[in-house]
Structures are given as C-alpha cells and as structure tokens.
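This section describes the prediction task in plain terms. A model, or a person checking by hand, is given the sequence of a single protein chain and must write out its three-dimensional structure as a string of tokens. No templates, partner chains or ligands are provided. The sample shown here is typical of the held-out split.
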Amino acid sequence: MEFQTTFFINAAKANGLEYRSGEYSLGSIRQGYIKNSARILIQDYPDEFTADFETNKRLVEQYTDGTAKAVRNRLAGYLVRLVRMEQAKEERAAAEPEEPVDMEL
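The expected answer:
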C-alpha cells in the first residue's frame, strides 16, 4: 500500500496537481482471459446477454462448462460492461443528427 500511495503522490506532483489523501485510487484491471472469453461469448450469442448481472451470470453458467464461481462472476460483470458500452454507442449514434452529404465535386 505504501508503494501505491507514494506512486500517486509522485505522479500528482509531476503533473502539477496537489495530492489529497483518498482522492486517487487504482483502477481494476481485468485479466486477458476474462476479456477474450467474454468477447467470444458475445460473438457466439449476440442477442442473449443483457445489462443485468444476474441474468448474465446464469447465461455464463449455461454456456460455459465448469467455470469457477469467481470466473463466472467476472465474466458476467464484464459482459454487463460490454453490453452497456454497446448500448451507449448506439444511443450516441442515434443522437447525432444526420449531416446532408454534398455530392457536388
């Protein structure tokens, strides 16, 4: 913990920021096998997964064979994130006004 705190204090000072205790925290990093497995599940079952963790947890349990509880939960959580990112992407695309295309050259 000491290293993390020291790292953030030094990083903040290097960027001209004032460090305040508890203001900075490490982000969670997902393992590659979680990301890869989740992307494969999304590709194989594109319309099955939702933004609901409990639903995704049951679907992961159904579509995978014998994964550990922790791995199943991590997969389900990352699938929620992927679905929400896709929904946000679609909402942004729908909100953008259509620009008329000028065909004159």
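For orientation: The CA atoms of residues 34 and 74 lie 7 Å apart.
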